[in-house]
Every structure is written in structure tokens, then in C-alpha cells.
Specification:
Length: 182
């Protein structure tokens, strides 16, 4: 037979576990899921001043899209090779402020696919008035300049989960320019 003290301990323990589970669930609602888009290879070589000046971004809010999928190629004239990869739906390259270091005027890169839609052909575009990425299908809006692609409006923000854009790395090169990769 179990003692009263042990039964009391079990009740308190399960109460604590219940509280911990509820707090964990409540705090996870504030996190952004930026892994919803499938992780496919990304490698865009923009090394050297010539490549960067031709295909990079030169300031905050300036953007470029890299798409190489089923005959759709952007930007026009970009020298895609067998070693160039553009992720799931393409890559959005934009000048912004690094969300982790607050360094200004740095290139930032995201997958173009809307994480709510999860389609290679439903790609965000830049709203030139608000400088936010917008999904043409669901209307979700993302802060790509200062918040690392976090949702700021639409179903990506108000749904059960908060879906953010998948981020990629823009690695500076000694010879100038950057390499975008995951």
C-alpha cells in the first residue's frame, strides 16, 4: 500500500509537470518557424567586385531575385553553372540590417517561397512602399530588412504557427562580393 506522503508527492509532482508543460506550450507560441520550407542546396557565387556590382545589392532595401527553375531564369544574364543552387523557390537577396548583430547595410538572403503556401511557384515579392516581402497568394507579410524574415502580417503571423522565411548565409569574400549558401 502507498503512503499518504508518497501520494501527496505524486500529486504535487504531476501538478508541477502539468505547469511546466503548459508554460512550455505557451512560450513556444511566440517562436517563429523558419524551417517549414524544404531545405534544398543554396550556392550563389557572387565573388569579386565585378560579379557583386552586376548581380549583388548596393544598399538597404535594394533587392534581387535568383530563380533557375523549369525554364524561368532570373536575373537575366546571370551565369548559372552546374554548381549554382537556389533553394526551394529561389533566393531573395536584399540589403538590410543584420537581425543578430545590428550591423547596417549588409546583404541578407531568404528563400522566395512563402512558408504558408509551401510551393516552389508561390514566391514573395518586395512591397516597395513598406519594404516588406509579401506573398501574392495568402497575403502574408515578412520583415526582411531588420527581423530576419519574421512574419508581420497575414496568416503567417495570425495562424496557429508563426511561419518565417527560410534564411540563408551571405558570406563575405576577401576578393570582394559574397557567396550565398545554406
Amino acid at each position: 500500500m502507498l503512503s499518504r506522503g508518497f501520494l501527496s508527492f505524486l500529486k504535487k509532482g504531476s501538478l508541477c509537470l502539468s505547469l511546466i508543460a503548459m508554460l512550455s506550450a505557451a512560450s513556444s507560441c511566440n517562436q517563429v518557424d523558419d524551417d517549414r520550407i524544404p531545405s534544398l542546396p543554396v550556392y550563389i557565387d557572387l565573388r569579386g567586385a565585378g560579379m557583386w556590382n552586376s548581380y549583388g545589392v548596393a544598399g538597404v532595401g535594394l533587392s534581387r531575385r535568383f530563380i533557375n527553375w523549369q525554364g524561368e531564369v532570373s536575373p537575366s544574364g546571370f551565369p548559372y553553372t552546374a554548381n549554382t543552387y537556389v533553394g526551394f523557390g529561389g533566393v531573395l537577396l536584399i540589403g538590410g540590417i543584420d537581425p543578430f548583430t545590428a550591423e547596417p547595410n549588409v546583404p541578407l538572403a531568404y528563400d522566395l517561397s512563402c512558408p504558408v503556401e509551401r510551393s516552389q511557384t508561390v514566391r514573395v515579392y518586395i512591397d516597395s512602399d513598406k519594404l516588406e516581402a509579401v506573398c501574392p497568394q495568402c497575403g502574408s507579410r515578412y520583415d526582411v530588412l531588420t527581423a530576419g524574415g519574421a512574419p508581420v502580417g497575414g496568416p503567417a503571423l495570425t495562424g496557429k504557427y508563426k511561419y518565417g522565411l527560410r534564411r540563408y548565409v551571405c558570406q563575405p569574400e576577401q576578393s570582394g562580393g559574397y557567396i550565398v549558401h545554406n
